[in-house]
Design the sequence.
Protein backbone atom coordinates (compact mmCIF):
# COMPACT_ATOMS: atom_id res chain seq x y z
CA UNK A 1 0.00 0.00 0.00
CA UNK A 2 1.42 3.44 -0.89
CA UNK A 3 2.34 5.72 1.99
CA UNK A 4 1.00 9.21 2.64
CA UNK A 5 4.63 10.41 2.61
CA UNK A 6 5.23 9.11 -0.92
CA UNK A 7 2.21 11.01 -2.23
CA UNK A 8 3.42 14.20 -0.57
CA UNK A 9 6.89 13.71 -2.06
CA UNK A 10 5.37 13.32 -5.53
CA UNK A 11 3.53 16.64 -5.07
CA UNK A 12 6.71 18.31 -3.85
CA UNK A 13 8.57 17.07 -6.94
CA UNK A 14 6.23 18.95 -9.31
CA UNK A 15 5.96 22.15 -7.21
CA UNK A 16 2.39 21.31 -6.21
CA UNK A 17 2.78 20.59 -2.50
CA UNK A 18 0.84 23.02 -0.32
CA UNK A 19 0.92 23.68 3.38
CA UNK A 20 -0.78 25.92 5.90
CA UNK A 21 0.83 29.03 7.37
CA UNK A 22 -0.41 30.91 10.40
CA UNK A 23 -0.78 34.65 9.76
CA UNK A 24 -1.56 37.33 12.30
CA UNK A 25 -3.62 40.31 11.15
CA UNK A 26 -1.68 43.57 11.24
CA UNK A 27 -3.95 46.52 10.53
CA UNK A 28 -6.53 46.24 7.77
CA UNK A 29 -4.36 45.52 4.73
CA UNK A 30 -1.37 43.74 6.29
CA UNK A 31 -0.45 40.49 7.97
CA UNK A 32 2.46 39.15 9.94
CA UNK A 33 3.98 35.98 8.49
CA UNK A 34 4.85 32.94 10.63
CA UNK A 35 8.44 34.27 10.65
CA UNK A 36 7.31 37.63 11.97
CA UNK A 37 7.67 39.45 8.65
CA UNK A 38 5.04 42.13 7.97
CA UNK A 39 3.35 41.53 4.61
CA UNK A 40 1.00 43.65 2.56
CA UNK A 41 -2.02 41.47 1.91
CA UNK A 42 -2.91 41.15 -1.79
CA UNK A 43 -4.45 37.73 -1.24
CA UNK A 44 -7.69 38.36 0.63
CA UNK A 45 -11.26 38.17 -0.68
CA UNK A 46 -12.35 40.66 1.99
CA UNK A 47 -12.81 43.16 -0.85
CA UNK A 48 -14.55 45.86 1.17
CA UNK A 49 -12.53 45.44 4.35
CA UNK A 50 -15.64 44.40 6.29
CA UNK A 51 -14.07 41.29 7.86
CA UNK A 52 -11.67 43.44 9.84
CA UNK A 53 -13.98 46.43 10.35
CA UNK A 54 -14.94 47.59 13.86
CA UNK A 55 -18.56 47.97 12.65
CA UNK A 56 -18.95 44.32 11.72
CA UNK A 57 -17.06 43.16 14.80
CA UNK A 58 -19.53 45.13 16.94
CA UNK A 59 -22.54 43.67 15.06
CA UNK A 60 -21.17 40.22 15.74
CA UNK A 61 -20.45 40.87 19.42
CA UNK A 62 -23.98 42.22 19.91
CA UNK A 63 -25.41 39.25 18.07
CA UNK A 64 -23.48 36.76 20.19
CA UNK A 65 -24.67 38.60 23.32
CA UNK A 66 -28.30 38.21 22.18
CA UNK A 67 -28.24 34.80 20.50
CA UNK A 68 -25.39 32.88 22.14
CA UNK A 69 -22.95 30.54 20.48
CA UNK A 70 -24.03 27.45 18.55
CA UNK A 71 -27.40 26.60 17.02
CA UNK A 72 -27.59 23.10 18.51
CA UNK A 73 -29.25 21.24 15.64
CA UNK A 74 -29.82 21.18 11.91
CA UNK A 75 -32.28 23.60 10.37
CA UNK A 76 -35.06 21.01 9.92
CA UNK A 77 -34.81 19.69 13.48
CA UNK A 78 -34.78 22.68 15.85
CA UNK A 79 -31.85 24.74 14.54
CA UNK A 80 -33.92 27.34 12.68
CA UNK A 81 -34.06 30.48 14.80
CA UNK A 82 -35.47 33.94 14.11
CA UNK A 83 -32.09 35.26 12.84
CA UNK A 84 -32.01 32.50 10.17
CA UNK A 85 -35.51 33.40 9.02
CA UNK A 86 -34.64 37.12 9.08
CA UNK A 87 -31.48 36.56 7.07
CA UNK A 88 -33.37 34.65 4.41
CA UNK A 89 -36.03 37.32 4.05
CA UNK A 90 -33.36 40.06 3.97
CA UNK A 91 -31.49 38.15 1.24
CA UNK A 92 -34.64 37.61 -0.82
CA UNK A 93 -35.52 41.33 -0.54
CA UNK A 94 -32.00 42.46 -1.34
CA UNK A 95 -31.72 40.22 -4.40
CA UNK A 96 -35.34 40.93 -5.49
CA UNK A 97 -36.10 37.21 -5.39
CA UNK A 98 -39.13 35.41 -4.05
CA UNK A 99 -37.12 33.31 -1.58
CA UNK A 100 -33.64 32.64 -0.26
CA UNK A 101 -31.98 29.79 1.59
CA UNK A 102 -28.84 30.20 3.70
CA UNK A 103 -26.20 27.47 3.94
CA UNK A 104 -23.17 27.04 6.16
CA UNK A 105 -20.80 27.96 3.30
CA UNK A 106 -20.73 28.78 -0.39
CA UNK A 107 -19.25 25.34 -1.00
CA UNK A 108 -22.18 23.70 0.79
CA UNK A 109 -24.57 25.91 -1.20
CA UNK A 110 -23.16 24.82 -4.56
CA UNK A 111 -23.05 21.12 -3.71
CA UNK A 112 -26.46 21.14 -2.00
CA UNK A 113 -28.20 23.12 -4.73
CA UNK A 114 -26.90 21.22 -7.74
CA UNK A 115 -27.52 17.79 -6.20
CA UNK A 116 -31.05 18.88 -5.20
CA UNK A 117 -32.13 20.24 -8.58
CA UNK A 118 -30.42 17.76 -10.91
CA UNK A 119 -30.29 14.01 -11.12
CA UNK A 120 -29.66 11.22 -13.59
CA UNK A 121 -31.94 12.31 -16.44
CA UNK A 122 -30.97 15.99 -16.24
CA UNK A 123 -28.21 17.94 -17.97
CA UNK A 124 -25.86 20.44 -16.34
CA UNK A 125 -23.82 22.69 -18.64
CA UNK A 126 -20.88 24.41 -16.90
CA UNK A 127 -18.29 26.96 -17.93
CA UNK A 128 -14.85 25.35 -18.00
CA UNK A 129 -13.58 27.72 -15.28
CA UNK A 130 -16.41 27.13 -12.81
CA UNK A 131 -15.33 26.90 -9.16
CA UNK A 132 -14.57 23.49 -7.66
CA UNK A 133 -17.74 23.65 -5.52
CA UNK A 134 -19.90 23.82 -8.66
CA UNK A 135 -17.97 21.03 -10.36
CA UNK A 136 -18.24 18.83 -7.27
CA UNK A 137 -21.98 19.49 -6.98
CA UNK A 138 -22.49 18.76 -10.66
CA UNK A 139 -20.57 15.49 -10.46
CA UNK A 140 -22.28 14.36 -7.30
CA UNK A 141 -25.73 15.05 -8.77
CA UNK A 142 -25.38 12.19 -11.23
CA UNK A 143 -26.72 14.41 -14.04
CA UNK A 144 -25.08 14.39 -17.46
CA UNK A 145 -22.33 16.98 -17.31
CA UNK A 146 -21.15 19.08 -20.26
CA UNK A 147 -18.44 21.77 -20.15
CA UNK A 148 -18.11 24.71 -22.56
CA UNK A 149 -14.81 26.56 -23.08
CA UNK A 150 -14.57 29.61 -20.85
CA UNK A 151 -17.16 32.25 -21.86
CA UNK A 152 -17.61 30.60 -25.28
CA UNK A 153 -21.28 31.29 -26.00
CA UNK A 154 -21.17 29.66 -29.46
CA UNK A 155 -20.19 26.36 -27.83
CA UNK A 156 -22.77 26.92 -25.12
CA UNK A 157 -25.41 27.30 -27.80
CA UNK A 158 -24.43 24.04 -29.51
CA UNK A 159 -24.53 22.24 -26.16
CA UNK A 160 -27.98 23.68 -25.48
CA UNK A 161 -29.19 22.51 -28.90
CA UNK A 162 -27.78 19.06 -28.23
CA UNK A 163 -29.29 19.00 -24.74
CA UNK A 164 -32.76 19.90 -26.06
CA UNK A 165 -32.53 17.12 -28.66
CA UNK A 166 -31.30 14.43 -26.31
CA UNK A 167 -33.09 15.18 -23.03
CA UNK A 168 -36.54 13.83 -22.31
CA UNK A 169 -39.25 16.51 -22.09
CA UNK A 170 -39.35 16.38 -18.31
CA UNK A 171 -35.60 16.74 -17.89
CA UNK A 172 -34.11 19.84 -16.35
CA UNK A 173 -31.34 21.58 -18.29
CA UNK A 174 -29.30 24.01 -16.19
CA UNK A 175 -26.53 26.34 -17.32
CA UNK A 176 -24.09 27.03 -14.48
CA UNK A 177 -21.62 29.90 -14.51
CA UNK A 178 -20.07 32.63 -12.38
CA UNK A 179 -20.59 36.37 -12.76
CA UNK A 180 -16.94 37.15 -11.92
CA UNK A 181 -14.54 34.23 -12.23
CA UNK A 182 -12.62 33.47 -9.09
CA UNK A 183 -9.16 32.90 -10.56
CA UNK A 184 -9.32 35.05 -13.72
CA UNK A 185 -11.34 37.99 -12.44
CA UNK A 186 -13.17 38.39 -15.75
CA UNK A 187 -16.93 38.61 -16.19
CA UNK A 188 -19.29 36.20 -17.92
CA UNK A 189 -21.13 37.48 -21.05
CA UNK A 190 -24.36 37.44 -19.06
CA UNK A 191 -26.73 39.05 -21.54
CA UNK A 192 -25.86 36.51 -24.22
CA UNK A 193 -25.94 33.55 -21.80
CA UNK A 194 -29.40 34.63 -20.63
CA UNK A 195 -30.64 35.03 -24.19
CA UNK A 196 -29.43 31.51 -25.02
CA UNK A 197 -30.79 29.76 -21.94
CA UNK A 198 -34.19 31.41 -22.54
CA UNK A 199 -34.22 30.50 -26.21
CA UNK A 200 -33.45 26.85 -25.43
CA UNK A 201 -35.63 26.48 -22.36
CA UNK A 202 -32.87 26.01 -19.79
CA UNK A 203 -32.40 27.48 -16.31
CA UNK A 204 -29.41 29.58 -15.25
CA UNK A 205 -27.63 29.18 -11.91
CA UNK A 206 -25.34 32.19 -11.48
CA UNK A 207 -22.66 32.07 -8.80
CA UNK A 208 -21.98 35.67 -7.71
CA UNK A 209 -19.36 34.74 -5.08
CA UNK A 210 -17.09 37.53 -6.39
CA UNK A 211 -19.77 39.90 -7.68
CA UNK A 212 -21.87 40.12 -4.51
CA UNK A 213 -21.08 43.23 -2.50
CA UNK A 214 -19.05 44.78 -5.29
CA UNK A 215 -21.25 45.38 -8.32
CA UNK A 216 -24.70 46.85 -8.80
CA UNK A 217 -26.82 49.07 -6.58
CA UNK A 218 -25.95 48.40 -2.93
CA UNK A 219 -23.63 45.61 -4.04
CA UNK A 220 -26.46 43.31 -5.16
CA UNK A 221 -24.23 41.74 -7.79
CA UNK A 222 -23.29 41.90 -11.45
CA UNK A 223 -26.70 40.69 -12.68
CA UNK A 224 -28.31 43.69 -10.96
CA UNK A 225 -25.63 46.03 -12.29
CA UNK A 226 -26.54 44.95 -15.81
CA UNK A 227 -30.30 45.12 -15.22
CA UNK A 228 -30.54 41.37 -15.85
CA UNK A 229 -31.25 40.06 -12.35
CA UNK A 230 -34.93 39.30 -13.04
CA UNK A 231 -33.88 37.02 -15.89
CA UNK A 232 -31.48 34.92 -13.80
CA UNK A 233 -33.36 31.92 -12.41
CA UNK A 234 -31.14 31.02 -9.46
CA UNK A 235 -28.72 33.45 -7.79
CA UNK A 236 -25.96 31.99 -5.65
CA UNK A 237 -23.53 33.85 -3.42
CA UNK A 238 -21.35 33.71 -0.37
CA UNK A 239 -21.27 35.82 2.77
CA UNK A 240 -17.58 35.04 3.27
CA UNK A 241 -16.00 37.36 0.71
CA UNK A 242 -17.12 40.99 0.28
CA UNK A 243 -19.75 40.51 3.02
CA UNK A 244 -16.90 39.84 5.47
CA UNK A 245 -18.54 37.01 7.41
CA UNK A 246 -19.26 33.37 6.68
CA UNK A 247 -21.92 31.28 4.97
CA UNK A 248 -23.50 30.85 1.55
CA UNK A 249 -26.92 31.45 0.04
CA UNK A 250 -29.06 30.86 -2.97
CA UNK A 251 -32.10 32.90 -4.10
CA UNK A 252 -34.91 31.98 -6.47
CA UNK A 253 -38.59 31.04 -6.59
CA UNK A 254 -40.29 29.88 -3.37
CA UNK A 255 -40.85 26.37 -4.72
CA UNK A 256 -37.14 26.10 -5.55
CA UNK A 257 -36.16 27.02 -1.96
CA UNK A 258 -38.79 24.60 -0.60
CA UNK A 259 -37.41 21.82 -2.78
CA UNK A 260 -33.90 22.49 -1.47
CA UNK A 261 -35.18 22.26 2.11
CA UNK A 262 -36.36 18.76 1.19
CA UNK A 263 -33.46 17.62 -0.95
CA UNK A 264 -30.22 19.54 -0.36
CA UNK A 265 -28.22 17.16 1.79
CA UNK A 266 -25.59 19.76 2.76
CA UNK A 267 -28.48 21.81 4.18
CA UNK A 268 -30.42 18.96 5.77
CA UNK A 269 -27.61 16.97 7.36
CA UNK A 270 -25.53 19.82 8.74
CA UNK A 271 -26.00 21.82 11.93
CA UNK A 272 -27.48 25.27 11.33
CA UNK A 273 -24.86 28.05 11.31
CA UNK A 274 -24.68 30.00 14.61
CA UNK A 275 -27.70 32.34 14.82
CA UNK A 276 -25.31 35.20 15.69
CA UNK A 277 -23.65 34.83 12.29
CA UNK A 278 -27.06 34.98 10.62
CA UNK A 279 -28.01 38.06 12.67
CA UNK A 280 -24.76 39.85 11.81
CA UNK A 281 -25.14 38.86 8.14
CA UNK A 282 -28.62 40.38 8.10
CA UNK A 283 -27.17 43.69 9.25
CA UNK A 284 -24.46 43.50 6.59
CA UNK A 285 -27.14 43.08 3.94
CA UNK A 286 -29.61 45.62 5.27
CA UNK A 287 -27.23 48.34 6.44
CA UNK A 288 -23.50 47.85 5.72
CA UNK A 289 -23.56 46.87 2.04
CA UNK A 290 -26.22 49.32 0.77
CA UNK A 291 -25.30 52.08 3.26
CA UNK A 292 -22.61 54.78 3.30
CA UNK A 293 -19.93 52.35 4.52
CA UNK A 294 -20.53 50.03 1.58
CA UNK A 295 -20.70 52.93 -0.88
CA UNK A 296 -17.43 54.44 0.32
CA UNK A 297 -15.67 51.06 0.42
CA UNK A 298 -16.72 50.35 -3.18
CA UNK A 299 -15.48 53.81 -4.20
CA UNK A 300 -12.09 53.23 -2.49
CA UNK A 301 -11.78 49.82 -4.14
CA UNK A 302 -12.38 51.38 -7.55
CA UNK A 303 -9.82 54.12 -6.82
CA UNK A 304 -7.28 51.44 -5.92
CA UNK A 305 -7.94 49.55 -9.14
CA UNK A 306 -7.61 52.79 -11.17
CA UNK A 307 -4.36 53.66 -9.43
CA UNK A 308 -2.98 50.16 -10.12
CA UNK A 309 -3.98 50.51 -13.75
CA UNK A 310 -2.37 53.91 -14.21
CA UNK A 311 0.86 53.00 -12.38
CA UNK A 312 1.26 49.68 -14.18
CA UNK A 313 -0.10 50.79 -17.58
CA UNK A 314 -2.27 47.68 -17.50
CA UNK A 315 -5.95 48.02 -18.47
CA UNK A 316 -8.42 48.84 -15.68
CA UNK A 317 -9.22 45.44 -14.13
CA UNK A 318 -12.79 44.17 -14.57
CA UNK A 319 -12.94 43.15 -10.91
CA UNK A 320 -10.79 43.17 -7.75
CA UNK A 321 -9.19 39.90 -8.93
CA UNK A 322 -6.13 40.42 -11.15
CA UNK A 323 -4.33 37.30 -12.36
CA UNK A 324 -0.75 37.54 -13.50
CA UNK A 325 -0.34 34.39 -15.55
CA UNK A 326 3.19 33.02 -15.49
CA UNK A 327 2.72 29.53 -16.93
CA UNK A 328 4.97 26.99 -15.25
CA UNK A 329 4.16 26.12 -11.63
CA UNK A 330 7.75 26.89 -10.64
CA UNK A 331 7.67 30.38 -12.23
CA UNK A 332 4.59 31.24 -10.20
CA UNK A 333 6.24 29.96 -7.02
CA UNK A 334 9.42 31.95 -7.76
CA UNK A 335 7.44 35.14 -8.37
CA UNK A 336 5.42 34.66 -5.17
CA UNK A 337 8.66 34.09 -3.24
CA UNK A 338 10.24 37.23 -4.71
CA UNK A 339 7.19 39.32 -3.85
CA UNK A 340 7.20 37.90 -0.37
CA UNK A 341 10.81 39.00 0.05
CA UNK A 342 9.58 42.46 -0.94
CA UNK A 343 6.93 42.31 1.79
CA UNK A 344 3.94 41.37 -0.36
CA UNK A 345 1.66 38.39 0.04
CA UNK A 346 0.30 37.31 -3.37
CA UNK A 347 -0.18 33.58 -3.61
CA UNK A 348 0.93 31.37 -6.46
CA UNK A 349 -2.19 29.64 -7.72
CA UNK A 350 -1.45 26.26 -9.26
CA UNK A 351 -3.05 23.10 -10.55
CA UNK A 352 -5.62 21.80 -9.65
CA UNK A 353 -7.10 25.23 -8.82
CA UNK A 354 -6.16 26.34 -12.36
CA UNK A 355 -5.11 24.30 -15.40
CA UNK A 356 -1.60 22.81 -15.53
CA UNK A 357 0.84 25.28 -17.11
CA UNK A 358 -1.49 28.22 -16.29
CA UNK A 359 0.04 28.90 -12.88
CA UNK A 360 -0.24 32.49 -11.81
CA UNK A 361 -0.04 35.10 -9.15
CA UNK A 362 -3.53 36.02 -8.06
CA UNK A 363 -3.64 39.59 -6.83
CA UNK A 364 -6.75 40.78 -5.05
CA UNK A 365 -7.37 44.43 -4.33
CA UNK A 366 -9.47 45.67 -1.44
CA UNK A 367 -10.86 48.92 -0.11
CA UNK A 368 -8.33 48.68 2.74
CA UNK A 369 -5.24 49.17 0.56
CA UNK A 370 -3.67 52.61 0.71
CA UNK A 371 -2.20 54.37 -2.35
CA UNK A 372 1.25 53.59 -0.89
CA UNK A 373 0.38 49.88 -0.83
CA UNK A 374 -0.47 49.99 -4.54
CA UNK A 375 2.73 51.92 -5.35
CA UNK A 376 4.80 49.34 -3.51
CA UNK A 377 3.05 46.48 -5.31
CA UNK A 378 3.68 47.92 -8.78
CA UNK A 379 7.34 48.65 -7.98
CA UNK A 380 7.80 45.12 -6.67
CA UNK A 381 6.13 43.54 -9.72
CA UNK A 382 8.58 45.43 -11.89
CA UNK A 383 11.50 43.91 -9.98
CA UNK A 384 10.42 40.27 -10.22
CA UNK A 385 13.07 37.71 -11.29
CA UNK A 386 14.01 37.92 -14.96
CA UNK A 387 12.15 34.81 -16.13
CA UNK A 388 8.87 36.19 -14.84
CA UNK A 389 9.11 39.89 -15.72
CA UNK A 390 8.29 39.47 -19.40
CA UNK A 391 5.13 37.68 -18.39
CA UNK A 392 4.18 40.32 -15.87
CA UNK A 393 4.74 42.97 -18.52
CA UNK A 394 4.70 45.96 -16.25
CA UNK A 395 6.48 48.63 -18.29
CA UNK A 396 9.55 50.04 -16.53
CA UNK A 397 8.60 53.66 -17.24
CA UNK A 398 4.84 54.06 -17.33
C1 LIG B 1 -15.27 31.04 -2.69
C2 LIG B 1 -16.21 30.51 -3.70
C3 LIG B 1 -17.23 29.60 -3.35
C4 LIG B 1 -17.30 29.00 -1.98
O1 LIG B 1 -17.74 29.90 -1.03
P1 LIG B 1 -17.31 29.69 0.51
O2 LIG B 1 -18.28 30.51 1.25
O3 LIG B 1 -15.90 30.16 0.62
O4 LIG B 1 -17.44 28.22 0.78
C5 LIG B 1 -18.14 29.24 -4.32
N1 LIG B 1 -18.05 29.69 -5.58
C6 LIG B 1 -17.07 30.54 -5.96
C7 LIG B 1 -17.02 31.02 -7.35
C8 LIG B 1 -16.12 30.96 -5.04
O5 LIG B 1 -15.13 31.77 -5.41
Sequence:
Amino acid sequence: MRSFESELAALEQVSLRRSLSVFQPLGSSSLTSPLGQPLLNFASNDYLGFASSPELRDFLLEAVASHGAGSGASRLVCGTSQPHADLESALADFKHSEAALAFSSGYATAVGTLTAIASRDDILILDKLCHASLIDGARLSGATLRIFPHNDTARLESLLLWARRSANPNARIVVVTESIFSMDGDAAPLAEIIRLKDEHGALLLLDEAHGFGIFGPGGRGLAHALGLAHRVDLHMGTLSKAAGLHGGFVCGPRAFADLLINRARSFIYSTAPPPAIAAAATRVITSLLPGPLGESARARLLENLSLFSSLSSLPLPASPIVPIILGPESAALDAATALRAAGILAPAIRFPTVAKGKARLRLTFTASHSPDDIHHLVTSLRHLPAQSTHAVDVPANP
